[in-house]
Design brief:
By secondary structure, the protein is α+β, with helices and mostly antiparallel strands. It is built from 3 helices and 8 strands, in the order ββββαβαβαββ.
């Protein structure tokens, strides 16, 4: 897990949900947790209650990005990491008030 001397702005907030054979992982750059962004009349709350089940580092985030069936990613660091890992393309990223959002669905055949 985390070392006490690691900076908080290099961490990610994680909440995972298991459903049948799928894992849905919601990951947010930690420094964005608690913030609200607006998309027209809609407010998106990046709340601790929703995102902060666990605090993870980049190595753990990479493993979770690989293993999850669905991803809901918020923030430039986690979105860029997913793009670097070739899980998505930059053209699929949506920015709201300068905050990148990305959803990834991996389709797998279950036997």
């Amino acid at each position: 897990m985390l070392e006490h001397n690691e900076p908080w702005d290099s961490k990610f907030a994680l909440r995972s949900i298991k459903y049948e054979r799928s894992v849905i992982s919601n990951i947010c750059d930690f420094e964005l947790v608690g913030r609200e962004v607006r998309n027209g009349e809609h407010i998106i709350s990046l709340s601790r209650e929703y995102f902060l089940e666990a605090l993870i580092d980049e190595s753990e985030a990479k493993n979770i990005l690989k293993a999850s069936s669905m991803l809901n990613l918020v923030g430039s660091r986690i979105v860029n990491l997913a793009i670097e890992m070739r899980l998505a393309k930059q053209t699929t990223v949506r920015n709201i008030e300068g905050v990148p959002f990305l959803m990834v669905f991996k389709f797998r055949h279950f036997e």
